[in-house]
Please model this.
Amino acid sequence: MVRNTSNLVSFRRRDEKPPQNEDGVSSNKACKAYNSVLELVGNTPLVKLNRLPLEHGVKCEVYAKCEFINPGGSIKDRIALAMMQDARKDGVVHDQTEFVEVTSGNTGIGIALNATLMGNKCIIVTQDKNSSEKVNTMRLLGAEFDNEINPRAHYENTGEEIVAALGSVDVLVLGAGSGGTLSGVGSKLKEVNPDCKLVAAEPDGSVMINKDGNPHPFLVEGIGGSEAPIILDKSLVDHVEVVTDKESFLMARELSKKEGLLCGGSSGAAVCAAFKAAKSLNIGHGKRVVVILPDGIRNYMSKFVSDQWMEAHRFLEPPQHTMKWWTKPVSDLNLNREYPKMTSKSTCHQVLEAMNETNVNIAVIVDDNGHYIGAVSKDSLRNRATNPTKLPGQVSEEYDFQDVVTDHLDKHVYTLADNIPEDTTIGLLSRVLDITPYVVIVTKDSNNSAFCTPSKVVTGDDVLDYIFESSKTIN
Ligand SMILES: Cc1ncc(COP(=O)(O)O)c(C=O)c1O
Model:
């Protein structure tokens, strides 16, 4: 068979010039071989946002520093590498050293990545509940929040890279967790251009920088808090933009969809703050804004990346399906199974006995006033009992069923309020049940929306039974 090769892949001839972009710059990315993945930490690309600024009515140039390109997936690879190299240089670390890091987040991943490549052991102490014992243990182990190598790594590397790529920058926008990035990059950019404005993206609910804020829990991870860490140099901050969870996650999703930047929620918060600041501070045409995107979507696949998660938190509306039952109220379901309601003083032992007596596998926990505190399932108790916390050299602890149940509540329990009409369609409930085994139906307190009283528990079986029974009458 004779093929027309012109339709197949054409190879560039040796004497042809390499492809160039409009500026005459070679568009071939530097192709290089590396000795270790650690050589890939830092030197992250700065990428101009093309669609989003226009769509949000912003005229300045916005460049994103893509820290999710780091091998561990976040900006924290930089400080992990810098801290560990520094410790090696000073002789504090040798081949037998075990690293201990107190975090469940990106710094832990950075430390683990570096440790494994340096051939060192590493222990990550995760923080699954904020008991004072755990906080004290963290302090004892030396959490990284006051390590001055953190801002220095950003001053010498992250900041320097931005200057090398863009020269003088007019505005820097970023969130603060430990404050290392803000202090390090902020100092560098202000040193190069003393008129550079630093805009802090503060999650709504955080009072780390915005002392006038109303403190309350928020979902964006990695930034914000109740107190400013020692290494956060607040004097560098010229302006604060408060960003809600909804704004942050919607912007992070837009960054993926419209700019191809698969970044996390704190990146969405920073870009949102940049657009708000461009308007409130009149940052117009010709001005150059740099926004830091600290991590990628990998950590959030079951969170804001999921439509159902966004809907469960009322950040997106559920799809408008046309099945007859979709818009029916949850009160139409046949929910006559009784789940035990236990007080917060109950032990796991008592709660399990109550579940066994009523032949169910979920219990709801309330305070002395009957207000909802949380819920616990047999499955999560089983999970804890069979996966004990164990440091190397320690014996595995037997599960203590005499522990108070509030220390063992299920982590992500979703509630829907039966006195908020749009909350209670079976359609929305079925979406939430796509990502969780059960939902607690509550009644919001009319005087104080922070309180609610639990009324029912719904599982996926209840919804299926309802659809099945309805199908019999429809057909
Ligand atoms: C996702 C994410 N965004 C932002 C930050 C803030 O960086 P920094 O700790 O340098 O303030 C962190 C820090 O942990 C983070 O994990």
